[in-house]
Amino acid sequence: MLVATDLDGTLVPIDSFTIPDYTANVLRDVDAAGIPVVFITGRPLRWVEPLREHVGEHGIAIVSNGALTYDLHENRIERIRGIKPEIGLAIARDIVAALPSVQLAIEFPDGIRLTPSFEQDFPMAGAPCGELDALWSEPAIKLLAKDPAVDHDVLRDSVLAAVGDRATATWSMPGLIEISARGITKANALAALCKQRGIDAADVVAFGDMPNDIPMLTWAGTAYAMANAHDSVLAVADHIAPSCQEEGVAHTLAALALG
Protein backbone atom coordinates (compact mmCIF):
# COMPACT_ATOMS: atom_id res chain seq x y z
CA MET A 1 0.00 0.00 0.00
CA LEU A 2 1.00 3.60 -0.65
CA VAL A 3 -0.97 6.54 0.73
CA ALA A 4 -1.13 9.77 -1.28
CA THR A 5 -2.66 12.74 0.47
CA ASP A 6 -3.30 16.34 -0.37
CA LEU A 7 -2.42 18.84 2.34
CA ASP A 8 -4.60 21.94 2.70
CA GLY A 9 -8.24 21.10 3.37
CA THR A 10 -7.35 17.40 3.50
CA LEU A 11 -4.52 16.55 5.90
CA VAL A 12 -4.02 20.10 7.16
CA PRO A 13 -7.06 21.86 8.67
CA ILE A 14 -8.47 24.86 6.86
CA ASP A 15 -6.72 28.13 7.80
CA SER A 16 -3.79 26.24 9.35
CA PHE A 17 -0.26 25.58 8.10
CA THR A 18 0.53 22.80 10.59
CA ILE A 19 -0.37 19.15 11.03
CA PRO A 20 -2.34 18.39 14.23
CA ASP A 21 -0.75 16.19 16.88
CA TYR A 22 -3.07 13.20 16.42
CA THR A 23 -2.51 13.21 12.67
CA ALA A 24 1.27 13.50 13.16
CA ASN A 25 1.23 10.48 15.47
CA VAL A 26 -0.78 8.40 13.01
CA LEU A 27 1.58 9.33 10.17
CA ARG A 28 4.53 8.14 12.27
CA ASP A 29 2.76 4.86 13.06
CA VAL A 30 1.83 4.26 9.43
CA ASP A 31 5.40 4.93 8.33
CA ALA A 32 6.71 2.59 11.04
CA ALA A 33 4.40 -0.08 9.66
CA GLY A 34 6.23 0.21 6.34
CA ILE A 35 3.50 2.08 4.48
CA PRO A 36 4.79 5.18 2.69
CA VAL A 37 2.68 8.34 2.88
CA VAL A 38 3.37 10.81 0.08
CA PHE A 39 2.31 14.44 0.42
CA ILE A 40 1.00 15.61 -2.95
CA THR A 41 -0.06 19.21 -3.03
CA GLY A 42 -0.56 22.37 -5.00
CA ARG A 43 1.71 24.14 -2.50
CA PRO A 44 5.10 25.30 -3.75
CA LEU A 45 8.15 23.63 -2.32
CA ARG A 46 8.89 26.39 0.20
CA TRP A 47 5.51 25.76 1.89
CA VAL A 48 6.18 22.02 2.25
CA GLU A 49 9.67 22.16 3.73
CA PRO A 50 8.36 23.03 7.24
CA LEU A 51 6.50 19.69 7.19
CA ARG A 52 9.58 17.58 6.39
CA GLU A 53 9.49 15.81 9.77
CA HIS A 54 6.15 14.26 8.81
CA VAL A 55 7.07 12.69 5.45
CA GLY A 56 8.60 9.56 6.97
CA GLU A 57 11.66 7.60 5.95
CA HIS A 58 11.01 7.94 2.21
CA GLY A 59 11.18 11.74 2.42
CA ILE A 60 9.23 12.35 -0.81
CA ALA A 61 6.78 15.17 -1.47
CA ILE A 62 5.11 16.00 -4.79
CA VAL A 63 4.45 19.73 -5.00
CA SER A 64 3.02 22.36 -7.36
CA ASN A 65 0.28 20.00 -8.59
CA GLY A 66 2.76 17.39 -9.80
CA ALA A 67 5.33 19.63 -11.46
CA LEU A 68 8.07 18.82 -8.96
CA THR A 69 8.91 15.71 -6.96
CA TYR A 70 11.32 16.43 -4.12
CA ASP A 71 13.32 14.38 -1.63
CA LEU A 72 13.05 16.49 1.53
CA HIS A 73 15.61 14.41 3.43
CA GLU A 74 18.27 14.69 0.74
CA ASN A 75 17.25 18.21 -0.42
CA ARG A 76 17.18 16.94 -3.98
CA ILE A 77 14.80 17.38 -6.90
CA GLU A 78 13.80 13.92 -8.13
CA ARG A 79 11.60 15.03 -11.05
CA ILE A 80 10.65 18.38 -12.54
CA ARG A 81 8.38 19.28 -15.44
CA GLY A 82 8.15 22.99 -16.24
CA ILE A 83 6.44 25.31 -18.70
CA LYS A 84 8.87 26.59 -21.31
CA PRO A 85 9.11 30.40 -21.47
CA GLU A 86 7.94 30.68 -25.08
CA ILE A 87 4.80 28.64 -24.34
CA GLY A 88 4.12 30.29 -21.01
CA LEU A 89 4.53 33.83 -22.28
CA ALA A 90 2.17 33.14 -25.18
CA ILE A 91 -0.40 31.75 -22.76
CA ALA A 92 0.04 34.76 -20.48
CA ARG A 93 -0.56 37.16 -23.36
CA ASP A 94 -3.79 35.37 -24.24
CA ILE A 95 -4.96 35.42 -20.61
CA VAL A 96 -4.32 39.17 -20.42
CA ALA A 97 -6.23 39.67 -23.68
CA ALA A 98 -9.23 37.87 -22.17
CA LEU A 99 -8.92 39.41 -18.70
CA PRO A 100 -7.16 42.80 -18.85
CA SER A 101 -7.16 43.19 -15.05
CA VAL A 102 -5.66 39.75 -14.41
CA GLN A 103 -2.73 39.44 -12.00
CA LEU A 104 0.02 36.99 -12.96
CA ALA A 105 2.94 35.33 -11.19
CA ILE A 106 5.27 32.43 -11.91
CA GLU A 107 6.64 29.79 -9.56
CA PHE A 108 10.14 28.34 -9.78
CA PRO A 109 11.78 25.80 -7.47
CA ASP A 110 13.52 28.65 -5.63
CA GLY A 111 10.44 30.83 -5.21
CA ILE A 112 7.87 33.08 -6.80
CA ARG A 113 8.36 35.90 -9.32
CA LEU A 114 5.67 38.56 -9.55
CA THR A 115 4.21 41.00 -12.00
CA PRO A 116 3.72 44.42 -10.37
CA SER A 117 -0.04 44.01 -9.90
CA PHE A 118 0.06 40.55 -8.28
CA GLU A 119 -1.16 40.58 -4.68
CA GLN A 120 0.44 37.82 -2.59
CA ASP A 121 -1.75 36.18 0.04
CA PHE A 122 1.40 34.95 1.80
CA PRO A 123 4.14 37.41 0.86
CA MET A 124 7.64 36.12 0.10
CA ALA A 125 10.19 38.75 1.07
CA GLY A 126 12.48 39.77 -1.75
CA ALA A 127 10.49 38.08 -4.50
CA PRO A 128 11.60 39.41 -7.90
CA CYS A 129 9.04 41.72 -9.47
CA GLY A 130 8.77 42.88 -13.07
CA GLU A 131 7.21 42.14 -16.43
CA LEU A 132 6.87 38.46 -17.27
CA ASP A 133 9.12 38.55 -20.32
CA ALA A 134 11.94 39.87 -18.13
CA LEU A 135 11.34 37.30 -15.38
CA TRP A 136 10.73 34.17 -17.43
CA SER A 137 13.89 32.85 -19.06
CA GLU A 138 13.76 29.21 -17.92
CA PRO A 139 11.00 26.62 -17.43
CA ALA A 140 8.61 27.55 -14.62
CA ILE A 141 6.78 24.99 -12.53
CA LYS A 142 3.57 27.00 -12.39
CA LEU A 143 1.88 30.10 -13.80
CA LEU A 144 -0.63 31.70 -11.43
CA ALA A 145 -3.59 33.83 -12.50
CA LYS A 146 -5.98 35.79 -10.29
CA ASP A 147 -8.42 38.61 -10.96
CA PRO A 148 -10.41 40.13 -8.09
CA ALA A 149 -12.48 42.07 -10.64
CA VAL A 150 -14.34 38.94 -11.82
CA ASP A 151 -15.97 36.04 -10.04
CA HIS A 152 -14.29 32.67 -9.89
CA ASP A 153 -16.33 30.99 -12.61
CA VAL A 154 -15.53 33.75 -15.10
CA LEU A 155 -11.85 33.62 -14.15
CA ARG A 156 -11.75 29.81 -14.47
CA ASP A 157 -13.57 29.66 -17.79
CA SER A 158 -11.59 32.55 -19.30
CA VAL A 159 -8.23 31.09 -18.28
CA LEU A 160 -9.13 27.59 -19.43
CA ALA A 161 -10.16 28.94 -22.82
CA ALA A 162 -6.97 31.00 -23.12
CA VAL A 163 -4.74 28.08 -22.12
CA GLY A 164 -6.37 25.57 -24.45
CA ASP A 165 -4.34 22.39 -24.87
CA ARG A 166 -0.97 24.11 -24.48
CA ALA A 167 -0.84 23.50 -20.72
CA THR A 168 -2.89 22.12 -17.83
CA ALA A 169 -5.00 24.51 -15.77
CA THR A 170 -6.70 23.66 -12.48
CA TRP A 171 -7.65 25.26 -9.18
CA SER A 172 -7.52 24.49 -5.47
CA MET A 173 -8.97 27.70 -4.04
CA PRO A 174 -11.54 30.15 -5.38
CA GLY A 175 -10.08 33.12 -7.20
CA LEU A 176 -6.77 31.53 -8.24
CA ILE A 177 -6.05 29.41 -11.31
CA GLU A 178 -2.88 27.31 -11.37
CA ILE A 179 -1.31 26.43 -14.72
CA SER A 180 1.23 23.65 -15.17
CA ALA A 181 3.00 22.18 -18.18
CA ARG A 182 0.83 20.20 -20.57
CA GLY A 183 -0.20 16.85 -19.10
CA ILE A 184 1.14 17.60 -15.63
CA THR A 185 -1.23 16.67 -12.82
CA LYS A 186 -0.97 15.12 -9.39
CA ALA A 187 -1.90 11.81 -11.03
CA ASN A 188 0.89 12.08 -13.60
CA ALA A 189 3.56 12.62 -10.95
CA LEU A 190 2.14 10.00 -8.59
CA ALA A 191 2.01 7.41 -11.36
CA ALA A 192 5.66 8.09 -12.22
CA LEU A 193 6.67 7.68 -8.57
CA CYS A 194 4.70 4.46 -8.20
CA LYS A 195 6.14 3.02 -11.41
CA GLN A 196 9.63 3.74 -10.10
CA ARG A 197 8.81 1.87 -6.89
CA GLY A 198 6.90 -1.01 -8.49
CA ILE A 199 3.57 -0.04 -6.92
CA ASP A 200 0.33 -0.59 -8.83
CA ALA A 201 -2.44 2.00 -8.90
CA ALA A 202 -4.69 -0.60 -7.29
CA ASP A 203 -2.50 -0.45 -4.18
CA VAL A 204 -2.72 3.34 -3.79
CA VAL A 205 -5.11 5.01 -1.35
CA ALA A 206 -5.59 8.71 -2.09
CA PHE A 207 -7.22 11.58 -0.18
CA GLY A 208 -8.26 14.98 -1.54
CA ASP A 209 -10.75 17.80 -1.37
CA MET A 210 -10.49 20.12 -4.39
CA PRO A 211 -10.66 19.90 -8.21
CA ASN A 212 -6.87 19.69 -8.58
CA ASP A 213 -7.11 16.37 -6.71
CA ILE A 214 -9.55 14.77 -9.15
CA PRO A 215 -6.95 13.24 -11.53
CA MET A 216 -5.16 11.66 -8.56
CA LEU A 217 -8.38 10.34 -7.06
CA THR A 218 -9.58 8.81 -10.32
CA TRP A 219 -6.16 7.19 -10.91
CA ALA A 220 -5.75 5.65 -7.45
CA GLY A 221 -7.21 2.27 -6.64
CA THR A 222 -9.06 3.67 -3.62
CA ALA A 223 -10.15 7.30 -3.45
CA TYR A 224 -11.38 9.22 -0.42
CA ALA A 225 -12.92 12.67 -0.65
CA MET A 226 -13.04 14.67 2.54
CA ALA A 227 -16.49 15.49 3.90
CA ASN A 228 -15.62 19.15 3.30
CA ALA A 229 -14.64 18.51 -0.33
CA HIS A 230 -15.86 20.36 -3.38
CA ASP A 231 -18.93 18.75 -4.98
CA SER A 232 -16.95 17.72 -8.06
CA VAL A 233 -14.54 15.79 -5.83
CA LEU A 234 -17.30 14.13 -3.84
CA ALA A 235 -18.77 12.96 -7.14
CA VAL A 236 -15.69 10.95 -8.20
CA ALA A 237 -14.59 9.47 -4.87
CA ASP A 238 -15.10 5.87 -3.80
CA HIS A 239 -15.52 6.86 -0.15
CA ILE A 240 -16.08 9.91 2.03
CA ALA A 241 -13.70 10.52 4.95
CA PRO A 242 -14.52 12.77 7.91
CA SER A 243 -13.63 16.41 7.35
CA CYS A 244 -10.13 17.83 7.64
CA GLN A 245 -11.20 19.67 10.78
CA GLU A 246 -11.99 16.25 12.30
CA GLU A 247 -8.61 14.84 11.17
CA GLY A 248 -10.43 12.52 8.81
CA VAL A 249 -7.32 11.28 6.99
CA ALA A 250 -5.72 10.19 10.25
CA HIS A 251 -8.83 8.42 11.53
CA THR A 252 -9.30 6.65 8.19
CA LEU A 253 -5.64 5.56 8.05
CA ALA A 254 -5.78 4.34 11.63
CA ALA A 255 -8.66 2.04 10.68
CA LEU A 256 -7.22 0.96 7.31
CA ALA A 257 -3.55 0.52 8.09
CA LEU A 258 -3.26 0.18 11.85
CA GLY A 259 -6.51 -1.43 12.89
Automatic annotation (TrEMBL):
Coiled coil residues, start to end: none
CDD domains recorded: HAD_Pase
Stored InterPro entries: HAD-like_sf (IPR036412), HAD_sf (IPR023214)
GO molecular function: magnesium ion binding; phosphatase activity
Pfam short name (any one): Hydrolase_3
GO CC entries: cytosol
Protein name listed in UniProt: HAD family phosphatase
Species assigned in the record: Microbacterium sorbitolivorans
